[in-house]
Design goal:
Mean pLDDT: 92
Protein name: AB hydrolase-1 domain-containing protein
Largest sheet: 8 strands, mixed
CATH architecture of the largest domain: 3-Layer(aba) Sandwich
Number of strands: 10
Number of helices: 12
Strand content: 15-25%
Strand order of the largest sheet: 1-10-9-6-5-3-4-2
Family: Belongs to the AB hydrolase superfamily.
CATH class of the largest domain: Alpha Beta
Structural class: alpha/beta
Keywords: Hydrolase
Radius of gyration: 18 Å
Oligomer: single chain
Organism: Emiliania huxleyi (strain CCMP1516)
Shape: globular
GO molecular function: carboxylic ester hydrolase activity
Number of domains: 2
Helix content: 25-40%
Length: 292
């Protein structure tokens, strides 16, 4: 079931915001899903959330590639992208800017959770690179996110000797104090553990996640460092999980203040909209991208 809330357009965009800090961009791993030959639509770049990787979007990405090229990106410190001690939003935004510049024309940029915040910051600071913006279950606000900190600590606590066996890691996480405390909404949920285990590398007894860097940036990643006065006028679609997701109708004012040409769709899912309702997610994103 879908519920739409329209956001009214406002005044023209203000001058593009400058970078907040000086960072060293890194080249991100990306996977290209070719679209139809001669496709007129802009490429669609999909950006995963914390603890994820570009391949989290592989299933929906292949369907969305029926009408345009799709690019799956691994954020720094995730998946196959390089690790770096700097896990700040500004660093991730600079990395994303490099990806978009390499494509050579404005794209449709879609991010989930942490990737949604990176996508929003990129759109605010480089609107010339983003034709359309899609954000899945996150708002440009500060969140508590204590659950994520506990998950990082639980992953770090898994003995290295156990990392060579997926089932052993799953059992260790399920029995952890974090799982007991979080219950069905966190590590106590087999779906969440299965999602995390996608980043396990049993052959090297390691994670595809730079957990130390993510833990060090935990406090900063709770917020949203939008430059003062910044706004972006491109069409923007926000997709929220109505069943306990992180993007709710109460967040509309914050979204509207930064992205006046935006609309909100509420879907009957939790936080992982693209995994819990892939057909609905594809329908919404496909239609939104085709509007341009």
């Amino acid at each position: 079931m879908l519920r739409r809330v329209a956001m009214a357009a406002r005044a023209p965009a203000r001058r593009q915001a400058r970078r907040l800090t000086s960072v060293t961009p890194i080249e991100l791993k990306r996977r290209h899903l070719p679209g139809p030959a001669g496709a007129a639509e802009p490429p669609l770049v999909l950006v995963h959330g914390i603890f994820g990787m570009g391949n989290n979007f592989a299933t929906v990405g292949r369907k969305l590639a029926a009408r345009r090229e799709v690019v799956l990106v691994d954020l720094r410190n995730h998946g196959g992208s390089p690790w770096h001690d700097d896990a700040s939003f500004e660093a991730m935004r600079a990395d994303m800017e490099g990806v978009l510049e390499s494509i050579g024309r404005p794209v449709s940029l879609c991010g989930h959770s942490l990737g949604g915040k990176v996508a929003m910051l990129t759109a605010l600071q480089r609107p010339d690179l983003v034709a359309r913006l899609c954000v899945a279950d996150i708002a440009p606000v500060r969140y508590e996110m204590e659950a994520n900190r506990a998950i990082i600590e639980a992953l770090l606590a898994v003995p290295e000797t156990a990392l060579g066996d997926r089932k052993e890691v799953d059992s260790a996480l399920a029995a952890s104090e974090t799982a007991i405390a979080q219950g069905g909404g966190g590590l106590g949920n087999p779906f969440v553990r299965g999602f995390l285990l996608q980043s396990l590398q049993p052959e090297t007894r390691s994670w595809r996640l730079n957990l130390r860097a993510l833990l060090g940036s935990y406090e900063a990643l709770r917020g949203f460092p939008a430059p003062a006065g910044s706004r972006a006028e491109m069409p923007a679609l926000f997709i929220g999980g109505a069943n306990g997701g992180m993007l709710q109708p109460k967040h509309l004012p914050a979204c509207e203040a930064l992205f006046p040409n935006a609309r909100l769709e509420m879907v009957a899912t939790g936080h992982f909209v693209h995994s819990e309702a892939p057909a609905t997610f594809v329908e919404l994103v496909d239609r939104f991208c085709a509007e341009g």
